[in-house]
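Make up an example, fold above all:
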Amino acid sequence: MKLFVPREVEQGESRVAMTPTSAQRLVGLGVEVILESGLGLASGHLDAEYVEAGATIAVDALAAFGESDVVVRVRKPSEETIANLSQGCVHVSFLDPFKERDLIDRLALAGVSAVSLEMIPRTTLAQKMDVLSSQANLSGYQAVILGAERFERILPMMMTPAGTISPARVFVIGVGVAGLQAIATAKRLGSRVEAFDTRSVVEEQVKSLGAKFIKVDLGETGQTDQGYAEELTPEQMEKQREAMAKACARADIVITTAKLFGRPAPRIVTKEILDQMASGSIVVDLAAETGGNVEGVKVDGEVVTENGVRIIGHGCLEGMVPRHASQMFAANVTAFLEHFWDAEEKALRLDLEDEILKGCLITHDGSVIHERFKENT
Protein backbone atom coordinates (compact mmCIF):
# COMPACT_ATOMS: atom_id res chain seq x y z
CA MET A 1 0.00 0.00 0.00
CA LYS A 2 1.28 3.43 -0.96
CA LEU A 3 0.61 6.35 1.38
CA PHE A 4 1.41 9.88 0.25
CA VAL A 5 1.78 12.94 2.50
CA PRO A 6 1.89 16.23 0.55
CA ARG A 7 3.07 19.61 1.79
CA GLU A 8 0.38 21.87 3.20
CA VAL A 9 -0.50 24.68 0.82
CA GLU A 10 -2.79 26.80 3.01
CA GLN A 11 -1.02 30.00 4.00
CA GLY A 12 0.23 29.97 7.58
CA GLU A 13 -0.27 26.23 8.14
CA SER A 14 2.85 25.00 9.93
CA ARG A 15 1.62 21.58 11.05
CA VAL A 16 2.17 18.33 9.16
CA ALA A 17 0.22 15.08 9.17
CA MET A 18 3.27 12.83 9.43
CA THR A 19 6.41 12.96 11.59
CA PRO A 20 9.46 10.70 11.19
CA THR A 21 8.35 8.70 14.23
CA SER A 22 4.89 8.04 12.78
CA ALA A 23 6.35 7.28 9.37
CA GLN A 24 8.59 4.67 10.96
CA ARG A 25 5.58 3.03 12.65
CA LEU A 26 3.73 2.76 9.35
CA VAL A 27 6.77 1.50 7.46
CA GLY A 28 7.05 -1.19 10.11
CA LEU A 29 3.52 -2.35 9.19
CA GLY A 30 4.50 -2.68 5.56
CA VAL A 31 3.24 0.68 4.28
CA GLU A 32 5.21 2.42 1.54
CA VAL A 33 5.33 5.98 2.91
CA ILE A 34 6.00 8.67 0.30
CA LEU A 35 6.48 12.33 1.17
CA GLU A 36 6.69 15.60 -0.70
CA SER A 37 10.10 17.21 -0.28
CA GLY A 38 10.17 19.89 2.42
CA LEU A 39 7.07 18.47 4.12
CA GLY A 40 8.28 18.91 7.70
CA LEU A 41 10.44 22.02 7.50
CA ALA A 42 7.91 24.30 9.24
CA SER A 43 7.64 21.86 12.15
CA GLY A 44 11.37 21.19 12.44
CA HIS A 45 11.72 17.91 10.50
CA LEU A 46 14.19 17.52 7.65
CA ASP A 47 13.74 15.24 4.63
CA ALA A 48 16.73 13.22 5.81
CA GLU A 49 14.93 12.32 9.05
CA TYR A 50 12.00 10.88 7.12
CA VAL A 51 14.32 8.94 4.82
CA GLU A 52 16.12 7.53 7.85
CA ALA A 53 12.71 6.42 9.18
CA GLY A 54 12.14 4.42 5.99
CA ALA A 55 10.05 6.86 3.94
CA THR A 56 10.88 7.99 0.42
CA ILE A 57 10.74 11.47 -1.12
CA ALA A 58 8.47 11.81 -4.16
CA VAL A 59 10.22 12.72 -7.39
CA ASP A 60 6.96 14.09 -8.82
CA ALA A 61 4.53 15.18 -6.11
CA LEU A 62 1.63 15.67 -8.55
CA ALA A 63 2.04 12.16 -9.91
CA ALA A 64 2.25 10.74 -6.38
CA PHE A 65 -1.37 11.76 -5.75
CA GLY A 66 -2.60 9.51 -8.55
CA GLU A 67 -0.32 6.59 -7.65
CA SER A 68 -1.20 6.43 -3.95
CA ASP A 69 -3.81 4.31 -2.19
CA VAL A 70 -4.01 6.69 0.79
CA VAL A 71 -3.36 10.43 1.03
CA VAL A 72 -2.95 12.02 4.45
CA ARG A 73 -2.75 15.75 5.15
CA VAL A 74 -3.85 18.38 7.68
CA ARG A 75 -6.05 20.69 5.61
CA LYS A 76 -8.73 19.96 3.01
CA PRO A 77 -7.67 19.17 -0.56
CA SER A 78 -7.78 21.65 -3.41
CA GLU A 79 -9.76 21.11 -6.63
CA GLU A 80 -6.50 20.31 -8.42
CA THR A 81 -5.63 17.69 -5.80
CA ILE A 82 -9.02 15.97 -6.11
CA ALA A 83 -8.66 15.84 -9.88
CA ASN A 84 -5.37 13.96 -9.48
CA LEU A 85 -6.54 11.41 -6.88
CA SER A 86 -7.09 7.87 -8.10
CA GLN A 87 -10.55 6.32 -7.90
CA GLY A 88 -10.86 4.36 -4.66
CA CYS A 89 -8.16 6.40 -2.92
CA VAL A 90 -8.64 7.01 0.82
CA HIS A 91 -8.16 10.68 1.68
CA VAL A 92 -7.69 11.57 5.37
CA SER A 93 -7.72 15.21 6.54
CA PHE A 94 -9.80 17.97 8.05
CA LEU A 95 -12.69 18.63 5.66
CA ASP A 96 -15.00 21.07 7.49
CA PRO A 97 -17.94 19.10 6.02
CA PHE A 98 -20.73 21.33 7.34
CA LYS A 99 -19.39 24.25 5.32
CA GLU A 100 -17.88 22.44 2.35
CA ARG A 101 -20.81 20.86 0.52
CA ASP A 102 -19.24 21.41 -2.91
CA LEU A 103 -15.99 19.83 -1.76
CA ILE A 104 -17.82 16.75 -0.49
CA ASP A 105 -19.67 16.39 -3.79
CA ARG A 106 -16.43 16.64 -5.76
CA LEU A 107 -14.80 13.97 -3.59
CA ALA A 108 -17.79 11.68 -4.12
CA LEU A 109 -17.77 12.27 -7.88
CA ALA A 110 -14.05 11.41 -7.99
CA GLY A 111 -14.74 8.08 -6.28
CA VAL A 112 -12.62 9.01 -3.24
CA SER A 113 -13.20 7.57 0.23
CA ALA A 114 -12.92 10.80 2.21
CA VAL A 115 -12.37 10.72 5.96
CA SER A 116 -13.17 13.90 7.90
CA LEU A 117 -10.98 14.01 11.00
CA GLU A 118 -13.39 16.45 12.69
CA MET A 119 -16.09 13.77 12.64
CA ILE A 120 -14.18 11.03 14.49
CA PRO A 121 -16.50 10.02 17.37
CA ARG A 122 -15.56 11.07 20.90
CA THR A 123 -15.59 7.55 22.32
CA THR A 124 -13.15 5.63 24.48
CA LEU A 125 -12.06 3.45 21.55
CA ALA A 126 -11.48 6.45 19.30
CA GLN A 127 -9.76 8.59 21.94
CA LYS A 128 -6.28 7.97 20.56
CA MET A 129 -7.50 9.13 17.13
CA ASP A 130 -9.24 12.29 18.37
CA VAL A 131 -7.41 15.01 16.48
CA LEU A 132 -9.75 17.79 17.61
CA SER A 133 -9.08 17.08 21.28
CA SER A 134 -5.32 16.82 20.91
CA GLN A 135 -5.16 20.11 19.02
CA ALA A 136 -7.57 21.80 21.46
CA ASN A 137 -5.24 20.83 24.32
CA LEU A 138 -2.46 22.82 22.68
CA SER A 139 -4.67 25.77 21.75
CA GLY A 140 -5.81 26.08 25.38
CA TYR A 141 -2.20 26.13 26.53
CA GLN A 142 -1.12 28.59 23.86
CA ALA A 143 -4.01 30.95 24.60
CA VAL A 144 -2.67 31.50 28.11
CA ILE A 145 0.90 31.93 26.87
CA LEU A 146 -0.25 34.46 24.27
CA GLY A 147 -2.34 36.33 26.83
CA ALA A 148 0.56 36.42 29.28
CA GLU A 149 2.89 37.70 26.59
CA ARG A 150 0.53 40.58 25.69
CA PHE A 151 -0.31 41.40 29.33
CA GLU A 152 1.61 44.34 30.78
CA ARG A 153 2.11 42.67 34.15
CA ILE A 154 3.29 39.28 35.42
CA LEU A 155 0.87 36.50 36.32
CA PRO A 156 2.11 35.09 39.65
CA MET A 157 2.13 36.74 43.07
CA MET A 158 5.57 37.87 44.17
CA MET A 159 6.68 39.08 47.59
CA THR A 160 9.78 41.22 47.13
CA PRO A 161 11.71 43.86 49.14
CA ALA A 162 10.11 46.38 46.81
CA GLY A 163 6.62 45.25 47.78
CA THR A 164 4.07 42.56 47.04
CA ILE A 165 2.79 41.94 43.53
CA SER A 166 -0.75 40.58 43.42
CA PRO A 167 -1.47 37.61 41.13
CA ALA A 168 -3.27 38.21 37.84
CA ARG A 169 -6.87 37.11 37.49
CA VAL A 170 -7.71 34.82 34.58
CA PHE A 171 -11.28 34.00 33.56
CA VAL A 172 -11.86 31.02 31.24
CA ILE A 173 -15.20 30.72 29.44
CA GLY A 174 -15.93 27.20 28.22
CA VAL A 175 -14.57 24.17 30.06
CA GLY A 176 -13.96 21.68 27.29
CA VAL A 177 -10.55 20.26 26.42
CA ALA A 178 -9.11 23.68 25.54
CA GLY A 179 -10.68 25.34 28.57
CA LEU A 180 -9.35 22.76 31.01
CA GLN A 181 -5.85 23.10 29.61
CA ALA A 182 -6.12 26.90 29.79
CA ILE A 183 -7.15 26.65 33.45
CA ALA A 184 -4.29 24.28 34.26
CA THR A 185 -1.73 26.44 32.46
CA ALA A 186 -2.92 29.68 34.06
CA LYS A 187 -2.75 28.04 37.50
CA ARG A 188 0.77 26.74 36.85
CA LEU A 189 1.79 30.30 36.00
CA GLY A 190 0.46 31.50 39.36
CA SER A 191 -2.81 33.16 38.39
CA ARG A 192 -6.07 33.25 40.25
CA VAL A 193 -8.43 31.44 37.92
CA GLU A 194 -12.19 31.46 37.54
CA ALA A 195 -14.12 29.48 34.93
CA PHE A 196 -17.63 29.14 33.58
CA ASP A 197 -19.45 26.58 31.45
CA THR A 198 -23.12 26.00 30.75
CA ARG A 199 -22.64 22.36 31.79
CA SER A 200 -22.66 22.09 35.56
CA VAL A 201 -21.13 18.60 35.29
CA VAL A 202 -17.71 20.15 34.73
CA GLU A 203 -17.68 21.97 38.07
CA GLU A 204 -15.69 19.24 39.81
CA GLN A 205 -13.08 19.22 37.02
CA VAL A 206 -12.63 22.97 37.42
CA LYS A 207 -12.24 22.69 41.19
CA SER A 208 -9.78 19.80 40.85
CA LEU A 209 -7.47 22.15 38.95
CA GLY A 210 -7.61 24.72 41.75
CA ALA A 211 -9.91 27.17 39.99
CA LYS A 212 -13.25 28.66 41.05
CA PHE A 213 -16.35 27.66 39.11
CA ILE A 214 -18.81 30.49 38.41
CA LYS A 215 -22.36 29.22 38.90
CA VAL A 216 -25.20 30.70 36.87
CA ASP A 217 -28.75 29.37 37.07
CA LEU A 218 -29.60 28.91 33.40
CA GLY A 219 -32.32 26.34 33.91
CA GLU A 220 -32.06 23.13 31.91
CA THR A 221 -28.78 22.76 29.97
CA GLY A 222 -26.82 19.78 28.78
CA GLN A 223 -24.30 18.42 26.32
CA THR A 224 -24.39 16.48 23.07
CA ASP A 225 -23.37 12.84 22.74
CA GLN A 226 -20.02 14.13 21.49
CA GLY A 227 -19.42 16.13 24.69
CA TYR A 228 -20.15 19.60 23.29
CA ALA A 229 -22.36 22.08 25.11
CA GLU A 230 -25.87 22.31 23.71
CA GLU A 231 -26.94 25.62 22.17
CA LEU A 232 -28.59 28.01 24.63
CA THR A 233 -31.90 29.82 24.24
CA PRO A 234 -31.84 33.65 23.87
CA GLU A 235 -33.05 33.97 27.47
CA GLN A 236 -30.27 31.69 28.74
CA MET A 237 -27.71 33.62 26.71
CA GLU A 238 -28.82 36.88 28.36
CA LYS A 239 -28.50 35.41 31.85
CA GLN A 240 -25.06 34.11 30.95
CA ARG A 241 -23.94 37.52 29.69
CA GLU A 242 -24.97 39.19 32.94
CA ALA A 243 -22.82 36.79 34.94
CA MET A 244 -20.00 37.05 32.41
CA ALA A 245 -19.96 40.84 32.71
CA LYS A 246 -19.15 40.68 36.42
CA ALA A 247 -16.46 38.02 36.01
CA CYS A 248 -14.89 39.75 33.02
CA ALA A 249 -14.84 43.11 34.83
CA ARG A 250 -12.61 41.71 37.57
CA ALA A 251 -10.40 39.65 35.22
CA ASP A 252 -7.06 40.71 33.78
CA ILE A 253 -7.11 38.02 31.07
CA VAL A 254 -10.25 36.46 29.61
CA ILE A 255 -10.03 33.35 27.44
CA THR A 256 -13.09 32.25 25.46
CA THR A 257 -13.20 28.69 24.10
CA ALA A 258 -16.88 28.20 23.20
CA LYS A 259 -17.09 26.47 19.83
CA LEU A 260 -20.19 24.71 18.55
CA PHE A 261 -19.05 22.22 15.93
CA GLY A 262 -20.84 22.75 12.63
CA ARG A 263 -22.39 26.05 13.76
CA PRO A 264 -21.15 29.64 14.19
CA ALA A 265 -19.53 30.38 17.54
CA PRO A 266 -21.91 31.90 20.12
CA ARG A 267 -21.41 35.60 20.87
CA ILE A 268 -20.63 35.69 24.60
CA VAL A 269 -18.52 38.79 25.28
CA THR A 270 -20.35 41.83 23.92
CA LYS A 271 -19.25 45.45 23.61
CA GLU A 272 -21.17 46.21 26.81
CA ILE A 273 -19.09 43.64 28.67
CA LEU A 274 -15.84 44.87 27.12
CA ASP A 275 -16.71 48.42 28.17
CA GLN A 276 -16.75 47.30 31.82
CA MET A 277 -13.24 45.81 31.66
CA ALA A 278 -10.14 47.69 32.78
CA SER A 279 -7.69 49.26 30.36
CA GLY A 280 -4.85 46.85 29.58
CA SER A 281 -7.01 43.76 30.03
CA ILE A 282 -6.56 40.98 27.48
CA VAL A 283 -9.20 38.86 25.77
CA VAL A 284 -8.08 35.80 23.78
CA ASP A 285 -10.79 34.31 21.55
CA LEU A 286 -10.21 30.69 20.49
CA ALA A 287 -13.36 30.70 18.37
CA ALA A 288 -12.33 33.59 16.11
CA GLU A 289 -12.19 31.39 13.00
CA THR A 290 -15.89 30.44 13.33
CA GLY A 291 -17.19 33.96 13.97
CA GLY A 292 -15.82 34.56 17.44
CA ASN A 293 -17.15 34.60 20.99
CA VAL A 294 -16.08 38.24 21.35
CA GLU A 295 -17.66 41.19 19.60
CA GLY A 296 -15.19 42.89 17.29
CA VAL A 297 -12.63 40.07 17.18
CA LYS A 298 -10.56 39.64 14.02
CA VAL A 299 -9.03 36.38 12.84
CA ASP A 300 -5.24 36.50 13.16
CA GLY A 301 -5.38 40.06 14.38
CA GLU A 302 -5.48 42.25 17.45
CA VAL A 303 -8.09 44.90 18.22
CA VAL A 304 -7.81 47.55 20.92
CA THR A 305 -11.15 48.90 22.19
CA GLU A 306 -11.79 52.53 23.06
CA ASN A 307 -11.23 51.78 26.74
CA GLY A 308 -7.94 49.97 26.10
CA VAL A 309 -8.97 46.30 26.16
CA ARG A 310 -6.93 44.20 23.74
CA ILE A 311 -8.86 41.50 21.84
CA ILE A 312 -6.72 38.79 20.28
CA GLY A 313 -8.10 36.41 17.67
CA HIS A 314 -6.19 33.55 16.11
CA GLY A 315 -7.35 30.99 13.58
CA CYS A 316 -5.03 28.23 14.74
CA LEU A 317 -3.29 28.75 18.08
CA GLU A 318 -1.96 25.18 18.04
CA GLY A 319 -0.08 26.11 14.88
CA MET A 320 2.09 28.40 17.01
CA VAL A 321 3.67 25.27 18.50
CA PRO A 322 3.98 23.22 15.28
CA ARG A 323 6.48 20.68 16.58
CA HIS A 324 4.17 19.27 19.24
CA ALA A 325 1.01 19.97 17.23
CA SER A 326 2.41 17.85 14.39
CA GLN A 327 3.56 15.15 16.82
CA MET A 328 0.06 14.82 18.26
CA PHE A 329 -1.72 15.15 14.91
CA ALA A 330 0.47 12.49 13.30
CA ALA A 331 0.05 10.13 16.26
CA ASN A 332 -3.75 10.47 16.01
CA VAL A 333 -3.77 9.82 12.27
CA THR A 334 -1.39 6.88 12.61
CA ALA A 335 -3.61 5.33 15.29
CA PHE A 336 -6.56 5.69 12.90
CA LEU A 337 -4.70 3.94 10.09
CA GLU A 338 -3.48 1.18 12.39
CA HIS A 339 -7.05 0.51 13.54
CA PHE A 340 -8.12 -0.32 9.98
CA TRP A 341 -4.89 -2.03 8.89
CA ASP A 342 -5.18 -5.56 7.52
CA ALA A 343 -1.84 -7.23 8.28
CA GLU A 344 -2.43 -10.12 5.89
CA GLU A 345 -3.50 -8.00 2.93
CA LYS A 346 -1.02 -5.22 3.77
CA ALA A 347 -3.77 -2.68 3.12
CA LEU A 348 -6.51 -0.68 4.81
CA ARG A 349 -9.75 -2.58 5.34
CA LEU A 350 -12.63 -0.12 5.46
CA ASP A 351 -15.32 -1.85 7.48
CA LEU A 352 -18.37 0.31 6.81
CA GLU A 353 -20.08 -1.11 9.89
CA ASP A 354 -17.27 0.03 12.18
CA GLU A 355 -18.62 2.71 14.56
CA ILE A 356 -15.57 4.92 14.14
CA LEU A 357 -15.71 4.79 10.36
CA LYS A 358 -19.47 5.35 10.31
CA GLY A 359 -18.82 8.56 12.19
CA CYS A 360 -16.12 10.03 9.97
CA LEU A 361 -16.29 8.50 6.46
CA ILE A 362 -18.09 11.11 4.38
CA THR A 363 -17.83 9.74 0.82
CA HIS A 364 -17.23 6.23 -0.52
CA ASP A 365 -17.63 4.36 -3.79
CA GLY A 366 -18.89 7.38 -5.69
CA SER A 367 -21.48 8.52 -3.15
CA VAL A 368 -21.92 10.67 -0.06
CA ILE A 369 -22.60 7.99 2.56
CA HIS A 370 -22.50 9.83 5.90
CA GLU A 371 -25.97 10.06 7.43
CA ARG A 372 -25.58 13.77 8.27
CA PHE A 373 -24.82 14.74 4.68
CA LYS A 374 -26.18 12.19 2.22
CA GLU A 375 -29.79 13.33 2.61
CA ASN A 376 -28.81 16.66 1.10
CA THR A 377 -27.58 15.10 -2.13
Summary: The CA atoms of residues 171 and 247 lie 7 Å apart. The chain has two domains: 2-129+322-374, 136-320. The domain at 136-320 is CATH 3.40.50.720 (Rossmann fold).
